[in-house]
Every structure is written in structure tokens, then in C-alpha cells.
Amino acid sequence: MTILLVTLALALLVGVSVGLLGGGGSILAVPILVYVAGLDPKVAIATSLVVVGATAAAGAIPHALAGRVQWRTAAIFGVTGMVGAYGGGRAAAFVPGEWLLAAFGVMMAVTAVAMLGGGRRPSTEPRTGPLPLGHIVVEGLVIGAVTGLVGAGGGFLVVPALVLLGGVPMATAVGTSLVVIAVKSGAGLLGYLSSTSVDWRLAAAFTAAAIVGSLGGGRLAGRVPDETLRRAFGWFVLAMGVVMIMQQFLP
Predict the structure, then answer these.
(1) For helices 97-117 and 41-65, angle between their N-to-C axes, nearest 10 degrees
(2) Average pLDDT over residues 237-241
(3) Which residues contact 238 (CB under 8 A, 6 or more apart)?
(4) 200 vs 125, higher pLDDT
(5) N vs C: which end of the chain shows fewer Cβ within 10 Å?
(6) pTM of the model
(7) Rounded distance, CA 219 to CA 215, Å?
(8) Which residue range(s) make up the domain with 52?
């Protein structure tokens, strides 16, 4: 019971991360489910897809109401991401769980460095023109495959792609990312269910707590400056990536 209560308390933080930063849910959920709840890595990844997908859908609501979603980008990113995520989820059956967690940590660290180290600075005004279709399709397929393979909702890759490559303001990237995460997580879960089961009772409890946190995080997002959100996201992802890598390679 103590482990369950601790797990659910941490689930609130997962939700706040998703609602505030547009990602980071799986970055927290997978380690919590593996190291706190004691799940097998692949079961934890599949369960995190349930949690992150539902939480992202709930967290997207306040962003959508505030006009912080680029719907065309979200739709194209979402469809191509679903294709990649399903393929990644099927491929995960052939990769050891420890390798998946290690790869997860490395990708987190690389993404964080990109967010903290530069690239294109996001504009302070919403982008006036649509993002190039070709870029969205390629990024959607690649990030979707990562989503399905390592159980990441993809926000820690979608947000930097929109901010650094698309010049989208951080708050808008967060809202758009949440819509993308919701649909891609569902596709990745379908791929995983072909070879892995989900602890549905734990997933439901974890998701309920995370949704409460995501709604609060979504309300805060519009009040925090873009640059502050961007740097907080980068440092957060870097710290979690280092922890994940150390867990896999240190005795």
C-alpha cells in the first residue's frame, strides 16, 4: 500500500510536467513504474503509453481553449506519428528492455542539450505561416517510431522540433505537442499490446492522478515566459536522462 501511495503521489508530478511542459510524462512515468512500482521495463513502457496518452489529452484542453494549438501541424504530426509509433511498438518486442531504457536516457540527454545550447530562438509572437509539410511528415514518422519503441509520448522530441526547427513559441509548441502525444501514444500502445500486457488497474489509478496534475500544469503554462519554460524543460530532461543512463550502466 505504501508503494502504491508513493507511486500515485509521483503520478501527480507526471501530470504537472505534461500540462506545463508539453512532455516529460513518459520521462517520469517509466522510471517511476520500473524503480518504484517494480514493473518489468517493457510492461512499464506499455503502461506509460496509457498514462501519457490519456493525460496529454486532458492536458491539451486548457491549451486548446486558450488558442495555443496549431491544429494543422498537430493533425499531420499526429497521423504520421501514429504510423511510426505503431511500427516502433511492434519492433520493441525484439529489443531487450534494458537496451530500451538506455536508449531512452541517451535520447533525453541529446534533446536537452539541443534545447539548452541554442538552435533557432523561438519567436515571441505566434508563427504566421504553416510549417513545411515535408518537415512535419519526416519528423512525425521518426518521432513516432521513437514513441512506440521506448514508450515516450514524444513531447521531449516534439517540443524541441517545433521550437528549434519550426520557430514556434514555446507555449504554442506545448499545446500542439499534447495533441500529438495523445494520438501517438495510442498507436504505440496498440503496437506494444501485440507482445506485452498492461497492468490496467495500476494504469487507471496512475492516469487519474496524472490527469489532475496535468490540468493544473496546463493552467500554469500560459503564465510562464517562453524562455523560462524552454530552459526548465531542457534542464529537466537532461537531469532525468543522466539518471536513466546511470541506472543502466553503473553496477
Answers:
(1) 40
(2) 77
(3) 108, 109, 112, 113, 116
(4) 200
(5) C
(6) 0.68
(7) 6
(8) 2-249
Q: Classify residue 185 as left (phi > 0), alpha (psi -120 to 50) or beta.
A: alpha
Contacts of 55 (CB under 8 A, 6+ apart): 14, 15, 18, 19, 25, 207, 210, 211, 213, 214
Identify whether the C-beta of residue 229 lies closer than 8 Å to the C-beta of residue 32: no
158 grid coordinates: 516534439
CA dist., res. 38 & res. 44, Å (int): 9
CA distance 111 to 237: 8
* Domain total in the chain: 1
Helices (H) then strands (E): counts for the chain: 10, 0
Q: For residue 38, what is its C-alpha cell?
A: 517494480
Helix, coil or strand: residue 79: helix
